[in-house]
Write a structure and sequence with these properties.
Length: 646
């Protein structure tokens, strides 16, 4: 930067930082400030001002170290919006560093780094700034001694930066300017940030929350604290990310955020889903947050998957067992509504006033799952800087749902069994147990009886969990319930998006009935929500409904040629004929179960033969996810095909 003009006032670092913070409150990205009436020799352009000043101050002002005092008049001049740079304020000088379009910039005291800071409080390789082609920038600490702070918060992992954000590195302040794409759809940008945040959470074992809230779009931007990543999800509804070092950190941020927003909107509807407890993928977190927001709106548990007479036996069973203290095992395919059943049991129980806590056992590695369930004491392991109660303690007086219990490691199963038998939990690093009082609901898409016979699941734990079993049929076996649910989801989505309820066209009705719905109720809900937004003239056409790849009467399939030229068995019913609603109880006879298992095994073998042992194509042919297909291979003891040697 050029030398400051003679006689210019030198601002203290504290005043400089304060002025910049005040300027950020009037943000207007994309301008440069020039001296328009300079008479003391500094000429135009004088210096680039922190670009968040919305308008020149009254009167004149001199630009001193990137700030304004009171000698010259400043005029805004347009500059390229995609330019990204860092304004560096140290004790001795103010300078500017232009960031690359894509790449990493290292900050530190070592002469070999990109941004060299003459600051004893800065490590040799202190932090890095990562620029992405889409215009976004992230900050990462490189294990520095004194840490890096963004917006006053200590950096752990990668932190997204916004234009105007303050980075504190040692005794030096860095301000980011010009970050962020100018034309990209904000929802697409949010989805990418959401995926990156989930991947980072899984990799670094941190925590993350997805927040959905209904608010006025004209006021939300001003109401939200700076630094959160957010975007419109639908008209009047917004999604927001809250990253943190652990669950306690995220929950503290959520509490603070909700308190700030309720000052403006006392009746605010806000729901969140936490990773890893509620899942680790964007779909899992979004599904949970959306379900909780719908519950708040309806002021009742979401009984969407019990809307049809076909589910009357399940409803009756829930009403009988809910008032008791029995442990409940809920079984069914992925997305069939197991969590809805668990929440309904909790709502109908004597523990309804207590917490309902859910954890996905498949989403966490064994050691992290143990810490989440049982908690830990300070100093129990590296990084345990304070005591943390586990989910058993958190759910005391309420209900704890262990989702995907079939994926729990055997060692954890033994510890869980001990907790259930002793009704007490011992935190990691603790000596004395703590009493807990929870009702346990376990859920799985696997056959625990079969797993216990093969010793893949502890038989004693299976019998302990199986106080009562509720089997949720897949959507394809519920007759015409798909239409009942589809219309109900359309009404809910239309109300949430404040749009008229669209009608299903005859072609859409036929497509809904014929489709096999491998994702079950969850998939149907997502399809209907999208249909509300995409419907033309208030009508949902068949172009907004998935095309049937297989008839609704799974496991029957239409014939297709096999590798040997022999046709597969014909389906048991024409594709357009739906099965009658199944009877949930009493259980089917053993002979019938064996017959169905043999039929399923034959179908799998035939699908493999017809696709040349390509497991992915065979799964698509059967209309099931590849992961489910592989589980069925193992269940039926069918050797997995191996790739031929090259």
């Amino acid at each position: 930067m050029d030398r400051l003009p003679d006689g210019a006032e030198t601002l203290s670092r504290a005043r400089a930082t304060g002025a910049l913070r005040q300027a950020r409150g009037r943000s207007r990205v994309g301008h440069r400030w020039l001296c328009g009436t300079c008479t003391t020799g500094c000429a135009a352009p004088v210096r680039e001002l922190h670009n968040s000043l919305r308008r020149p101050p009254a009167g004149c002002g001199t630009l001193v170290r990137g700030l304004v005092t009171s000698t010259h008049n400043l005029l805004p001049v347009q500059r390229p919006r995609r330019r990204r740079f860092v304004l560096i304020l140290s004790e001795s000088a103010v300078r500017q560093f232009d960031l690359p379009e894509s790449g990493t910039v290292v900050v530190g005291r070592d002469p070999s780094v990109d941004i060299v800071l003459d600051d004893k409080a800065v490590s040799r390789r202190h932090a890095e700034l990562v620029s992405y082609p889409d215009g976004s920038v992230e900050a990462r600490d490189l294990g520095s001694q004194n840490g890096t702070r963004v917006r006053g918060v200590l950096v752990r992992g990668a932190v997204p930066l916004n234009s105007g954000d303050l980075l504190e590195i040692g005794n030096t302040n860095l301000f980011l300017e010009g970050s962020g794409p100018s034309t990209e759809d904000p929802h697409l940008r949010f989805e990418r940030a959401f995926q990156q945040a989930c991947a980072r959470q899984r990799r670094e074992a941190g925590a993350l929350a997805l927040v959905l809230l209904d608010a006025d779009p004209n006021e939300l931007g001003a109401a939200l604290p700076r630094g959160f990543t957010w975007a419109p999800y639908a008209p009047g509804r917004f999604e927001l990310l809250v990253p943190g070092t652990d669950a306690a950190d995220v929950e503290a941020q959520l509490t603070s955020l909700e308190a700030q927003l309720r000052v403006r909107w006392p009746a605010l509807r806000l729901a969140s889903a936490l990773a890893p407890g509620d899942g680790t993928t964007p779909d899992e977190l979004l599904d949970t947050a959306r379900s909780r927001l719908e519950q708040l709106k309806a002021k009742a548990p979401p009984a969407a998957s019990l809307a049809s007479p076909a589910m009357d036996p399940v409803r009756a069973l829930v009403e009988r067992i809910a008032p008791s203290e029995l442990a409940v095992l809920v079984t069914g395919e992925t997305g069939s509504g197991k969590q809805v059943i668990a929440e309904l049991i909790h709502a109908r129980s004597r523990r309804a006033s207590g917490r309902f806590v859910r954890v996905n056992c498949a989403a966490l590695p064994e050691q992290l799952l143990e810490a989440e369930l049982f908690g830990y004491e300070r100093g129990a392991f590296t990084g345990a800087v304070k005591d943390k109660p586990g989910l058993f303690e958190h759910a005391t007086g309420g209900t704890l749902m262990l989702d995907e219990i079939g994926d729990m490691p055997l060692a954890m199963q033994a510890k869980l069994l001990q907790v259930l038998e002793e009704r007490s939990v011992r935190r990691l690093g603790a000596v004395d147990p703590r009493p807990v009082d929870v009702r346990l609901i376990a859920a799985t898409n696997k056959d625990l009886a079969v797993l216990s016979e093969t010793q893949a699941f502890r038989a004693d734990l299976y019998w302990r969990l199986n106080g009562a079993t509720v089997t949720v049929p897949p959507l394809r076996e519920r007759g015409d319930e798909v239409l009942v649910l589809a219309r109900q989801f359309l009404r809910h989505a239309a109300a949430a998006f404040e749009r008229p309820v669209p009608k299903l066209s005859p072609d859409a009705v036929e497509a809904l009935v014929r489709y096999h719905w491998p994702g079950n109720v969850r998939q149907l809900r997502n399809v209907m929500e999208r249909a509300v937004l995409m419907a033309v003239d208030g009508v949902v056409g068949d172009d907004l409904v998935p095309v049937a790849q297989a008839p609704a009467t799974v496991p029957a399939m239409p014939p297709f040629p096999s590798a040997g030229g022999l046709p597969l068995p014909m389906p048991t019913a024409p594709p357009h004929v739906s099965r009658p609603a199944p009877v949930v109880s009493p259980p089917a006879p053993v002979a019938m179960r064996d017959e169905m298992a043999a039929l399923e095994r034959d179908r799998i073998i035939a699908a493999l033969e017809s696709t040349g042992n390509n497991q992915t194509k065979a799964a698509e042919l059967l209309g099931i996810p590849r992961r489910t297909f592989l589980e069925k291979l193992d269940r039926h003891q069918i050797p997995r095909p191996r790739k031929p040697p090259r």
